[in-house]
Amino acid sequence: MVVICLSSLVSPPVALLMGLAVAQFIGHPYLQINHKATHILLQFSVIGLGFGMNFTSALKAGQDGILFTVVSITGTLIVGYFMGKFLKIDKKSSFLISVGTAICGGSAIAAVSPVIKAEEKQISVALGTVFILNSVALFVFPIIGHALNLSQTQFGLWSAIAIHDTSSVVGAAGKYGTQALEVATTVKLARALWIIPVAFLSTFLFKNRGNKIKIPWFIGLFMLAMIANTYFPFVKGFSHFLTGIAKAGLTLTLFLIGCGLDRTLLLNVGFRPLIQGILLWGIISGSALWAVMSFAN
User: Fold this and answer.
1) At 63, is the pLDDT very low, low, confident or very high (cuts 50, 70, 90)?
2) Among candidates 56, 62, 61, which has minimal Cα distance to 230?
3) 51 and 229 in contact (C-beta within 8 Å)?
4) What gap in Å lies between CA 221 and CA 216, rounded to an integer?
5) pLDDT digit string, tens, across residues 45-62
6) What angle separates helix 178-192 from helix 55-64, to the nearest 10 degrees?
7) I need a surface site. Which of 73, 246, 250, 279 has the fewest CB within 10 A?
8) What does the alpha-carbon distance between residue 63 and residue 234 come to, in Å, rounded to a whole number?
9) pTM for the full predicted model
10) Which residues of 25-62 are buried (b: 16+ CB within 10 A; e: fewer)?
11) What's the CA angle centered on 191, arms 240 and 151, to 5 degrees?
């Protein structure tokens, strides 16, 4: 399965489906290290994608998406807070689901959970909710984008704002087009930097000062890769090779994510947290879609 995913024969959505099939019918023999493996593989894949992007155009795309980013993150955290209280979900689970929806899915949850001293059950619920919705987004977003005739820029912005995890953002945008992939990756990684201020805010909200905050270092390497590809001509000689490896790594990442969505995780999510995740996702997806169709070209 791994070898097939690393070949060009399998697309990211198909790889995710293959992983889901393995999780339901065979089971993952190394489930305890699956999340860490996908986290590391995704980071290196994203860095590799930087070698196929132009720094100047990517910077402009990031600037275009900053207003959408600020408004959507703030709005999602506020709505998520009140929704969690209404649905009577424990405060930490609700906050992790909101942070995962607002910023960058599993990476944000992994960064914030030790800061607020979340329990394993609360982390699993939040991750499960996000990964389930990520799987749906990978298939649904390109279909909606084509149905609404969204431009490459519009789809890139929309997917970066409305899809939780970077892996699914890159998978969906890559399927839509090269320009959409460039816009989506840049905006999503700029959005991921919000992990830092939100994590600091979390220490005050949950009164857990003194805990270390994980800084997403790979974003800096992604930017260096773009700069090298843009300003150093000799890099372009092998950039195609590096981006090819990165795309294969991303496909494998989605396969492993699918392998981690076993029945136990799906059952542990629970009804109310899933409802919160779906409603939050619906709000941010709908409002972001309206915004990019109204203001982005």
Assistant:
1) low
2) 56
3) yes
4) 10
5) 888 888 887 778 777 766
6) 60
7) 279
8) 28
9) 0.77
10) eeebeeeeebbeebbebbbbbbbbbbbbbebeebbebb
11) 60
Token pair 């930017």 is found at 223
Which residue reads 């060009």 in tokens? 8
Alpha carbon distance 292, 157 (integer Å)? 7
Q: How confident is the model at residue 121 (pLDDT cuts 50, 70, 90)?
A: confident
What gap in Å lies between CA 176 and CA 198, rounded to an integer? 31
Tell me: the pLDDT tens digits for 142-177?
999 999 999 999 999 999 999 988 888 988 998 899
Q: Are 191 and 156 in contact, with CB atoms under 8 Å apart? A: no
Residue carrying the six token digits 């409305």: 162
Q: Is the dihedral of CA 48, 243, 170, 24 positive or negative?
A: negative
269: tokens are: 């999510």
Using CA atoms, how far apart are residues 282 and 267, in angstroms rounded to an integer? 22
Q: What letter would DSSP give residue 121? A: H
Element (H, E) at 74: helix 66-87
Let me know: does 278 contact 128? Beta carbons within 8 Å: no
Are 168 and 134 spatial neighbours (Cβ–Cβ below 8 Å)? yes
- Count of C-beta atoms within a 10 Å radius of residue 10: 20
Block residue for tokens 């260096």: 224
Number of alpha carbons in the 13 Å side-chain half-sphere of residue 184: 33
Backbone angles phi, psi at 180, to 5 degrees: -60, -40
Strands (DSSP E) found in 82-230? none
Nearest to 256 by CA among 27, 13, 35, 51: 35
Token look-up 């930097």 returns: 193
